[in-house]
TrEMBL record:
Name of the protein this chain belongs to: Phosphoglycerate kinase
Gene coding for it: pgk
Metabolic or biological pathway, per its Swiss-Prot or TrEMBL entry: Carbohydrate degradation; glycolysis; pyruvate from D-glyceraldehyde 3-phosphate: step 2/5
EC number: 2.7.2.3
HAMAP family named in the record: Phosphoglyc_kinase
Membrane-spanning segments: none
Amino acids binding substrate: 19-21, 35, 58-61, 117, 154
Cellular compartment(s): Cytoplasm
Catalyzed reaction equations: (2R)-3-phosphoglycerate + ATP = (2R)-3-phospho-glyceroyl phosphate + ADP
UniProt GO MF annotations: kinase activity
Location (main, coarse): cytoplasm
Subunit structure comment from the entry: Monomer.
Binding-site list for ATP: 204, 295, 326, 355-358
Length: 399
């Protein structure tokens, strides 16, 4: 982006793809504005250079047509506040409202267009359909800046196709995210540990396979741990279990042993009869989970074990909560891991929190962003980067 902002951009219309996919509560209030804040520096630098800035983004997964609950309108006020200037809002993405808003922009002005995914062309698998939509977006601008790191793993019109139609630049956020993630994949300082959590083991299998080539230790908690515990021969009661993946997990445990990668699993777990904050909980060793109880967080011994395994690390990547942290009785495991990362940061190590959910979790638990080396705005995108996959939104910029 420096190539662009070092020029006088007065009179230049710049289309910026940001990731403003923020969590909203029932009243449509933003509950974590991390992605909006992370998007501001790029937008501001273009506006300061005199450009007419047209921001495009998605929210949620609407099915190619407008739906009130997915409108980007709640984001516009926060973006204006953070930028310190009024951001114009277009009620559609490429229709009459967008055209009028874009035509009305003066030098340094900023506009946000309505949710890209209200248009079927944005996410279409058909290249022509995507291309038609990308043509309309490109017609608004003279240059394109890709800054939505959270979506660079999607081959979508505003991420990929539009870059083939305009002079294109990597935004500051995409640049800094890639720089940090490169340090994890290319030459991490060792010991290098990866902590994985979250509910779905199936989503993480490819990344685990890839990480076995680079990481020294893999710590696994959250809902996904129970499939690994089952693979170790434990009964997991009514905990989350992906029965189809037990054999794959068994294979991972064996191949980790052969490669000298240490896999660390919980040794105790907080159990409850159901997924609720208002039931009696207890802590048991993972070998003693009763048939009618489910594990909802890693237990205190596991917290101490995970902290010990992270204490001497020089590099740590973390994706996914250790338990159902939204409910107070099951938040201690996630909090303990967050604290262990904070300690590594204080000791001079590099800590990276990946993923919108993990980022929201640490903030909700009271940790400020500056206590970690880097909080990635990309969940799927950062995991796919670590998997070694080609990310379409990065590849097209490099091309
Ligand atoms: C995310 O939330 O990870 C990004 O905004 C991408 O959203 P998507 O998974 O709906 O494509």
């Amino acid at each position: 982006i420096d190539d662009l902002t070092s020029q006088d951009l007065k009179g230049t219309r710049v289309l910026v793809r940001s990731d403003l996919n923020v969590p909203l509560d029932d009243a449509r209030t933003i509950t974590d504005d991390g992605r909006v804040r992370a998007s501001v520096p790029t937008i501001k630098s273009l506006s300061d250079a005199g450009a007419k800035v047209i921001v495009v983004a998605h929210l949620g997964r609407p099915k190619g047509a407008p739906e009130d609950k997915y409108s980007l309108r709640p984001v516009v006020a926060r973006l204006s506040e953070l930028l310190g200037k009024e951001v114009a809002f277009a009620e559609d993405t490429v229709g009459e409202s967008a055209t009028a808003v874009v035509e009305g922009l003066g030098d340094g002005d900023v506009a946000l267009l309505e949710n890209l995914r209200f248009n079927p062309g944005e996410t279409s698998k058909d290249e022509n359909e995507r291309g038609e939509f990308a043509d309309k977006l490109a017609a608004f601008a003279d240059a394109f800046v890709s800054d939505g790191f959270g979506v660079v793993h999607r081959k979508q019109a505003s991420v990929y196709d539009v870059a083939t139609r305009l002079p294109h630049y990597a935004g500051g956020l995409v640049g800094s995210e890639v720089e940090v993630l490169k340090r994890l994949t290319e030459d991490p300082q060792r010991p290098y540990a990866v902590v994985l959590g979250g509910a779905k083991v199936a989503d993480k299998l490819a990344v685990i396979e890839n990480l076995m080539q680079t990481a020294d230790r893999l710590l696994i908690g959250g809902g996904m741990a129970y499939t690994f515990l089952k693979a170790q021969g434990h009964e997991v009661g009514s905990s989350l279990l992906d029965a189809e993946k037990v054999e794959t997990c068994k294979g991972f445990l064996e191949s980790a042993k052969e490669r000298g990668v240490e896999i660390v699993l919980p040794v105790d777990t907080v159990i409850a009869p159901e997924f609720s904050a208002d039931v009696e909980t207890s802590v048991v060793p993972v070998s003693e989970i009763p048939a009618d109880q489910m594990g909802l967080d890693i237990g205190p011994e596991s917290q101490a074990l995970f902290a010990e395994k992270l204490a001497d690390c020089k590099t740590v990547f973390w994706n996914g909560p250790m338990g159902a942290f939204e409910m107070a009785p099951y938040a201690a495991g996630t909090k303990a891991v967050a604290q262990a990362l904070v300690d590594v940061t204080s000791g001079g190590g590099l800590t990276v929190v990946g993923g919108g959910d993990s980022a929201a979790a640490v903030r909700q638990l009271g940790f400020s962003d500056d206590r970690f080396g880097h909080i990635s705005t990309g969940g799927g995108a950062s995991l796919e980067y670590l998997e070694g996959k080609t990310l379409p939104g990065i590849q097209i910029l490099a091309d």
